[in-house]
Design a protein that fits this description.
The complex is a heterodimer of chains A (about 500) and B (about 425).
Chain A: E1 2-4, H1 12-22, E2 26-31, H2 40-46, E3 55-57, H3 62-66, H4 69-84, E4 88-93, H5 95-100, H6 104-111, E5 117-119, H7 129-144, E6 158-162, H8 171-185, E7 188-193, H9 199-202, E8 210-213, H10 216-230, H11 242-256, H12 271-276, E9 287-292, H13 294-307, E10 311-317, H14 323-332, E11 337-339, H15 343-353, E12 357-360, H16 362-371, E13 375-377, H17 396-408, H18 414-422, E14 457-458, H19 460-466, H20 471-487, E15 492-493, H21 495-505
Parallel strand pairs in A: 2-3, 2-4, 4-5, 6-7, 6-8, 9-10, 9-12, 10-11, 12-13, 14-15
Chain B: E1 20-23, H1 36-42, E2 46-52, H2 54-64, E3 74-78, H3 81-84, H4 90-104, E4 110-115, H5 117-121, H6 126-137, E5 142-147, H7 157-166, E6 180-184, H8 189-202, E7 207-210, E8 225-229, H9 235-243, E9 247-248, H10 256-270, H11 275-300, E10 304-307, H12 314-323, E11 328-334, H13 343-348, E12 355-358, H14 361-371, E13 375-378, H15 380-388, E14 393-395, H16 398-401, H17 407-426
Parallel strand pairs in B: 1-12, 2-3, 2-4, 4-5, 6-7, 6-8, 8-9, 10-11, 10-13, 11-12, 13-14
Helix pairs in contact in B: 7-9, 10-11, 10-17, 11-17
Classes of the chains: A alpha/beta (about 500), B alpha/beta (about 425).
Chain lengths: ~500, ~425
Amino acid sequence: MQLTLWTYEGPPHIGAMRVATAMRGLHYVLHAPQGDTYADLLFTMIERRGSRPPVTYTTFQARDLGSDTAELFKSAAREAYERFSPEAMIVGASCTAELLQDDPGGLAKALALPCPVIPLDLPAYQKKENWGAAETFYRLVRALAGPRRERSRRARRSCNILGPTALGFRCRDDVREMETLLATLGVEVNVVAPLGASPKDLTRLGDADFNVLLYPEIALTAAQWLERTHGQPFTRVVPIGVGATRDFIAEVARLAEIDPEAASQVEPSRLPWYARSVDSTYLTGKRVFIFGDATHAIAAARIARDELGFTVVGLGSYSREFARDVREAAARYGVEALVTDDYLEVEAKVMELQPELVLGTQMERHIAKRLGVPCAVMSAPAHVQDFPARYSPQMGFEGANVIFDSWVHPLMMGLEEHLLAMFRDDAEFHDGAAPSHLGGKQTPPPAAPVASDIVVVWAEDAEKELRKVPFFVRGKARRNTEKFAAERGLETITVETLYDAKAYFAR
Amino acid sequence: MNALSPLPAMGAAGCEARPIVQERGQREVFCGLTGIVWLHRKIQGAFFLVVGSRTCAHLIQSAAGVMIFAEPRFATAILEDRDLAGVADIDDELDAAVDRLLVRRPDIELLFLVGSCPSEVIKIDLSRAAARQSKKHAPRVRVLSYSGSGIETTFTQGEDACLAALVPTLPQEAPHAPPSLLVVGALADVVEDQFARLFDALGVAPVRFLPMRRAADLPPVGPNTSILLAQPYLADTAHALEERGARRIDAPFPLGVEGATLWLRAAAVAFGVTEERFDAVVAPARARAERAMRHYRDTLAGKRIFLFPDSQLEPALARFLSREMGMEIVEIGTPYLHRRHMASELELLPPGAPIVEGQHVEQQLDRCRAARPDLVLCGLGLANPLEAEGFTTKWSIELLFSPIQGFDQAGDLAELFARPLNRRARLEV
């Protein structure tokens, strides 16, 4: 029994809904009690979809439990087919219906509906949303992609784009960015799935030469199956960030057997120049904490360190299925990975590490807000703000531009920081003045964890000297000095200690 | 000085004459767990622990949204495979979860264990667990249980189940206590205060409210208690109070000027308030409300509205919208119709509009599309899809989260319905 206030992922049938809602011509009959229909509003309100998810719920009640919930399922499935005439149906149970053991798959089979019906077995008490989406997509691909076929060698190589779903983080725009990129490289896109695909489209998956795997959490299982069964290799690099996009282009060029020079036609990103321009100097070594789904978190760490010059002080994910990848990535940055779905643990970690920027989900945005730390959102779970009206991909070179803007804007601008330091004694720029976009109120940083039992006291002149340090680095100076003193068993910090510590930490 | 006398039935078409259609099929409604979203803000010192699945936790965070971040007084104990497989003893697991919670939240005085669909289906005995934990944590914390499961409760019925669970714990009123009034049903604090002032001016006293604002302030109940329902979905609570000897005052619900007047009047009659005093007290508030509403009547009069089932407030809303706002009612959906509690509402409803109890959402959408109403009252799952089809909609859940009862909210209530039409008229894109 897990005690929680909030979860990063919903139950697995929500994952199945994300796949069903992304597709056209597919209908999901879900054996579920009254109330589980709340899931519709995720799509109609958060994603602002103009149509209801293609889901029929049995919405059984207590009185049905006494009679025949199986019959209720059958009539719901039959009615759904008659009303929506889908090309294919998926059937399954939510957590409560799983306990009834009505076997939706068997019941639907008995109906002998004139369309493919794919049963889903999503164990609600073990698994979560992304696993449910991955399993659903895999089952659909397996059922519909058909046997391996001979592919004739064509002039233009083709690929499928796998992984984007409804309610996914920037999936809509990532797909467009990738389609543009692949077109520029001269690679044809055969099918994009699940987003926008019909069951009939899935039967054509085997026609492509290889697969582009955009979201491993959703489509890795399907991509692996297609590799085994249809001999389609798939891309391993997720093109988030400039370096990753370049690697991705190289990988695509290799898989498509095209000249990598084709990439010179691709509009480059502004990120490399912006990161080099002098205004960005202040970004150097900013301490960043990263938490999100595995794909976005791992990509974010690479961008943070290699493309923006930040220091990654923490890296974590709620994607347990990808814990190994997250741990490997964390090791590259010399930090310990935090793999958890308990946001209180994440909050504790943020408080402990005292980063200067948090890159996370909407939950980390709230954590960071409470702690007065700037934050940018870069991963699902999705929020209404994550479906912006404008074109705003995370992937490809335009995605890198978007990332530069959205991660750097929460921080104080370089010139602004510089001026504040110059005029720090002016009334307008007093120490308590926080950046206006953070509410203009300085939130006192949480107390640093005490490293030892020694209580370190600041001598008056040392405290006065500390105040001469520009305030935006003063917190760091204070922490470092206290750590330095505690480690050496000093009970009083003098001006000497302050400068000793400064020299010690200077690198 | 004439004591107020009960009003004769006003509508020619009583509830006997009105056809009530029952419909079965897919229901597009929340389950009773959703009530936690407003109840946890209402009862200070109370905490709601849902014993359920990840779906329950996901539902509450989806419905409660930003409240998650304001130290909410609710949480979910998520059942996992090992709980179901019998590897873990559910009682031990639950006790441990409660212990951990009480350590972290020393401010909890009253803890509700809230049953869910899975906990009901696997028959976890939460009332036994609550009794056991009450004993263990007395006197600091009282532990009660109720079911907010979707198999037993629809949306607002969660509040009914919660309040009904409180009733046995209410103290017995003193043997020769003077008549008292208990207003039942969660109201916004501001509305509660307004009613308290009006009752005070009428000389109706003592007046108490259930749910109480502080977990420890339990109102007493007994044969000298009269109960006045402020919400239409309190079947079990009213029954439990009647079992304890309280008498229910029959009245329409306090929505709109007419609803508020008749509701207060019913209490005033029961407490022997004179005609003169009632009029003197109520007249200024009525006049103010009339002024506040007048503006919106221009927008709403003559417009046709279709009400999807959601909170059981629908018949009372339809009565307000038709009689005070001049709207034409196309269909009144309601998840459940309590014939007795709704009797005085049904008498007031103009004839014609069918009441549909239960739901078959697809068929109801078909009827809505065919009728082409000017305004649709519906849940969040339906609102944007209907807007995309060209309909103008009002989210029904807002009627639970906004103060809408009483004279000083009558204008606000009208405005909630006028705003979507106003918005539609402004937009040129």
